[in-house]
Amino acid sequence: MPGYPIDTRVRPGCAASVQPVRLLCQPHPGRSSNERASFAAPTLEMTLFDKTEGFHSNPPAPGPHGQSPLACAAVLGAGAWGTALASALQRGGVPTWLWARRPEIAEAIHCRNQHPHCLPGVALPSGLGATADMAHALHGAQVVILAVPSAATRDIARRAASMLAPGALVLTASKGIEQGSGALMTRVLDEELGKTVLTGSIGGPSFADEVACGKSTLLTLALPALERFHPRYKDARRIVDSLQQQLARAGVTLELTRDVVGAQVGGALKNMIAIACGMATAQGMGENARAGIITRGLDDMRRLTLAMGGNLETLFGCSGVGDLFLTAASEHSRNTRLGMRLGRPGAAAAVDELAEGAVSAMSVEILERKYGLRLNVAAAVRDVLQHQAAPEQALHRLLHENAPGMAPPAARPPRPAAVRPRIGRDSDLRPAAQPWGLSYA
Q1: Which of 43, 203, 255, 357 is the most buried (most CB within 10 A)?
Q2: Number of other CB atoms surrounding residue 171 within 10 Å
Q3: Do strands 217-222 and 198-203 pair parallel, antiparallel, or not at all (unpaired)?
Q4: How far apart are the C-alpha atoms of 201 and 320, rounded to whole Å?
Q5: CATH classification of 265-401, choosing from 3.90.79.10, 3.40.50.970, 3.40.1180.10, 1.10.1040.10?
Q6: How far are the Cα atoms of 62, 244, 248, 257, 389 from residue 221, in angstroms, in the given order?
Q7: DSSP 8-class letter at 432
Q8: Beta-sheet strands, E only, within 176-302
Q9: Which residues pair with 97 in a beta bridge?
Q10: 259 Cβ partners below 8 Å, 6+ apart?
Q11: For the segment 97-123, what is each residue's pLDDT rounded down to a tens digit?
Q12: Cα 341 from chain centroid (whole Å)
């Protein structure tokens, strides 16, 4: 019926109907006509998926230790990465709604199971709901993922704050640093959402089209509440265990950590490193130079992570070196392609679309001043973006002039003089006299 969304998810308090046609045609209870008009208005009938036995094409498996599977999830942001994460959740058996800013995108995903702009040719899982109404997407969601650019994260979090269910797990999938404040995305969530929800981050070496197709992927989920002595540890563990098991059914393995600082620093800085590697490729500098840039970038990651109180071990996981190697080594990465455009002679002024790494290269300067650091890769990318240096000059300084000074070799300690033990009546090692009746064993 025109004007009515196909609401295929059973909301809390709404009885599941065993008559699919009646349920598909009913509007969302309590919604006004204006609110219904903002939903995608599908014209094709979709398969009903809810808790009614027999209708779910991919029923949730029982969670480990007897916990129940997740009832529903929401992803805010229908770009390539947000759509891929929503597809993985849906394939894993979590009924998922995807919020899109543009109604025509929501309609294409909801009706035709495809995203023609960001993921052309990729068949999205049937049953994935999409809407332009944020309140509809967030209603009753136990897990919420914000997959929007870092520049939009604060605004979206502020809008969603009053719509979130208490105790929900809210994750940021943005790999960036906020402009103006230098804040990591989890700090933005904490400031806007308060303490009624659990906040963390998710990311790792992943291309959106491969995740959307169900190919094997390893991601890091960073959540401070996974600390065993955290007051909400049990709630966090229950949700994360269910999420971990259900995403595994979609080919996504979650690596867990409590270190949100290390996970986000790795994700933000690897984009800048990929831009620098792309410039080196365009300049024809060779693989040795790319390896040198990655080495400098890893040192930047190490110093900033330690300055912000993070854990170095996190950088050796998939959110650090794993994500870096994938992004910096593939032309499939937007940041690498941006670097290649910047590296071509006369192309710097023609760049009209900036990837997340370019924005973070500017934002991280706030953290450099705060902690008294100079991040060499970020400085090189900034110089090129601000037209303060040509790509070849910036990369030459990065590789040759900014080399950390080597400590002088330590002097060899003097060899200790040989000491001959005294033996005989005057020796200090002579055992003391023993009482009668005792002897050495």
Answers
A1: 357
A2: 25
A3: antiparallel
A4: 13
A5: 1.10.1040.10
A6: 21, 9, 13, 6, 38
A7: P
A8: 198-203, 217-222, 252-257
A9: 74, 129
A10: 222, 310, 311, 313, 314
A11: 999 999 999 999 999 999 989 999 999
A12: 26
**Among the listed ranges 117-121, 162-166, 413-417, which one has the minimum average pLDDT value?**
413-417
The residues that bridge with 146 in the sheet, in sequence order, are 76, 172
**Amino acid sitting at position 327:** T
CA dist 268 and 149 (Å) reads 12
Which H helix or E strand runs over 357?
A: helix 356-371
Query: Is the pTM for the entire model greater than 0.85?
Result: no
CA distance linking residue 52 with residue 95, whole number of Å: 13
46, burial (CB in 10 Å: exposed 0-12, middle 13-18, buried 19+)? middle
For 66-133, give the DSSP string.
GPPPP--EEEE--SHHHHHHHHHHHHTT--EEEE-SSHHHHHHHHHHS-BTTTBTT--PPTT-EEES-
| Domain boundary assignment for the chain | 58-258, 265-401
- For the segment 185-213, the average pLDDT, to the nearest whole number, is 95
HEC readout, 197-226: CEEEEEECCCCHHHHHCCCCEEEEEECHHH
* Residues 6+ away with beta carbon under 8 Å from 16: 10, 23, 50, 51, 52
Using CA atoms, how far apart are residues 230 and 200, in angstroms rounded to an integer? 14
Per CATH, the number for 58-258 is 3.40.50.720
State the Cα–Cα distance between residues 301 and 355, nearest whole angstrom.
19
Spatial contact of 283 and 395, defined as CB atoms under 8 Å apart: yes
Q: What is the pLDDT of residues 35-77, one digit of tens each?
A: 434 444 443 333 333 332 333 344 444 444 556 889 999 999 9
Catalytic residues: 270
- Number of neighbouring beta carbons within 10 Å of residue 396: 17
Tokens of 24: 């598909």
